[in-house]
Specification:
three-stranded antiparallel sheet; alpha+beta; 2 domains
């Protein structure tokens, strides 16, 4: 929502005007770069927690150090977490979903439970797969991310199987 979009006009509301429609769920790159934190708070007030899906728009440089990377034959320069082309145009993001959840809490003051919902159950509902994904309930796939208070991921579990385990043994969670 909002990134690379024209503004709201009273005769042509466009995509921004769709935010006001209760039938529309919005996707949000919550990195503070694509969408300013104040707009994130306004979006939460306008839509409510059940109508927001966190997304990342991450490129292959996500999680890597600052530097020069190639994306679709173009040089992408990552500096301070921002991915830009040589002309300064944003070129995707380096945001990871755990950081998106953390920033959503930071920007809005919402609960951890609500923030996690925007990254799990809401997207599952949008994709119409919430009968098996998006929440921890009997009969659903056991897809779980275990993280600590600083949002460091310690385990990733998919369909009940550990597919990632952090190397350190001092989990603190």
């Amino acid at each position: 929502m909002f990134n690379a979009m024209r503004g709201l006009h009273h005769r042509e509301p466009g995509a921004v005007g769709a935010v006001l429609d209760s039938e529309v769920m919005v996707e949000l790159i919550c990195d503070g770069i694509h969408v300013h934190p104040v707009i994130v708070r306004l979006l939460l007030k306008a839509k409510g927690i059940d109508e927001i899906c966190l997304i990342t728009d991450s490129i292959s440089a996500a999680g890597l150090a600052d530097g020069k990377y190639s994306l679709g034959g173009l040089d992408v320069f990552v500096q301070a977490g921002q991915a830009r082309l040589a002309d300064g145009t944003l070129s995707g993001s380096t945001l990871t979903m755990d950081q998106a959840v953390k920033k959503f809490i930071e920007f809005t003051g919402c609960t951890l439970s609500d923030a996690v919902k925007t990254a799990t159950l809401n997207p599952a509902k949008l994709l119409k797969i919430d009968e098996r994904k998006g929440s921890l309930e009997e009969g659903k796939d056991a897809d779980i991310a275990v993280f600590d208070a600083d949002f460091n991921i310690h385990y990733t579990i998919i369909n009940g199987k550990i597919v990632y385990e952090r190397k350190t043994r001092d989990y603190g969670c």
